[in-house]
Design goal:
This is Tumor suppressor candidate 3. With 296 residues, this protein is α/β, with parallel strands linked by helices. It has 12 helices and 6 strands.
């Protein structure tokens, strides 16, 4: 009967129940079931996506993303997780000196979160390399690298969801602090042990101790006022040049671009390491003029 009735309806081109109360009641009765089925389907899709991301994170803390993966896991719903994505250009042909340094710090943050007690599936770390995901750069209208962006669970990224390296710095601690501001997830940074500083300090200590031992019968130079004055002046030049800022923020030595290397940072909230050396040398060369200006 159902097959014949449908054929009759198709031939007539009219629905005897269309516009009737019976038809409206059926639509209202079907709507909750449709919404429920859509909710169940969305739930299982979300569970599958989250499980896939969790499995990829177990293998590697930073998930490599191409255009298809970026659209599937970062842009497309359903999602109840945030995604931190670094856009970079790691190929040597791109001549991005800062990219490797930022990537190393980014890896430290991702590993710190992955192996911490606060780890959960509400935040994931990814990376898009220009040579493997140029379409993503074009879609987001990114013209520079590196860039670290936060893609929230709901809504579109805001201007504050792009990290400002000039203001915050590029150290892992700065990245973790920025992530906490955007996601309320606190990440305690665990750096791998680096014994180079300890070894350098031990060698310097042995060198100074050996020198003082050889000159143990003649230590009058320690009371030389001119020597201590010169050391104090060089220390002041180092501080004025921004060397302490370099130690805190960890800027790159210089920046490579398509038009050649850049030694002076164009922003007002950043500098390069080589730039501080240039300022220190200029301060030494023009020390008399500087002193005269201070006296005046």
């Amino acid at each position: 009967m159902f097959f014949r009735a449908s054929n009759i309806l198709s031939r007539r081109g009219t629905d005897p129940y269309k516009g009737s109360k019976f038809h409206l009641r059926n639509i209202k009765a079907i709507k909750p079931a449709l919404y429920y089925n859509l909710f169940i389907l969305s739930y299982f899709q979300l569970e599958e996506k989250t499980q896939q991301l969790t499995d990829m994170t177990v293998k590697k803390s930073i998930i490599p993303l191409n255009f298809n993966k970026f659209k599937e896991y970062v842009k497309s719903p359903p999602k109840d997780y945030s995604f931190i994505v670094m856009f970079t250009a790691m190929a040597p042909a791109r001549r991005c000196a800062i990219c490797q340094h930022v990537y190393d710090e980014y890896v430290i943050v991702a590993n710190s979160f992955r192996f911490s007690q606060a780890y959960n599936n509400k935040i994931f770390f990814g990376m898009v390399d220009f040579d493997e995901g140029s379409d993503v750069f074009q879609m987001l209208r990114l013209n520079t690298a590196p860039v670290i962006m936060h893609f929230p669970a709901k809504g579109k990224p805001k201007p504050a969801d792009s990290m400002d390296f000039e203001r915050a710095g590029i150290h892992a601690e700065a990245i973790a602090k920025w992530i906490q501001d955007r996601t309320d997830v606190q990440i305690r940074v665990f750096r791998p042990p680096n014994y180079s500083g300890l070894v350098a300090f031990a060698m310097l200590f042995l060198l100074v101790a050996g020198f003082l031992y050889l000159r143990r019968n003649n230590l009058e130079f320690l009371y030389n006022k001119q020597m201590w004055a010169v050391c104090a002046v060089f220390f002041c030049f180092a501080m004025v040049s921004g060397q302490m800022w370099n130690q805190i923020r960890g800027p790159p030595f210089f920046h490579r671009t398509k038009n050649g290397p850049v030694y002076i940072n164009g922003g007002s909230h950043g500098q390069f390491v080589l730039e501080s050396y240039i300022v220190a040398i200029l301060s030494i060369l023009f020390k008399e003029e500087i002193f005269s200006l201070c006296v005046e």
